[in-house]
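ugh ok fine here u go
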Amino acid sequence: MPTCIFCDILAGLAPANFIHRDDLCAAFMDIRPVNPGHILVVPRTHATLVSELDEVTVGRILQVAQRVDVALRASGIKCEAVNLIISDGAAAGQEVPHVHMHVIPRFRSDGHHFRFSLAYFTRTPASELGKNAELIRIHMGG
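structure:
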């Protein structure tokens, strides 16, 4: 089984600049930051997809990301806004197969863009939205 760099970081086998650690997750600096202050929040449990984690851990990741967001804005690091991004699977752009949330400080003219394909600008018929909503509702449980 190949090793996971995030598991190695969490185990102390690879270096990282931690800003937070608790029983459920940790947060550390991204070594390839989009902008200065880019942080990764990762669960201590190895999971490739969000669906593999329990709800408490998923909630804790977002709680820590919120605290990082507040800290970034107060830190003096250039930060007019923040992106919170989880790429859940390789097709979504996940490069490290361990769940992680990017907390990225953003500012006007930082040169980074999040773009959608041209299909985004075509309005989806209400009937298709309803059909898709029903398919998802069926599998939501509870």
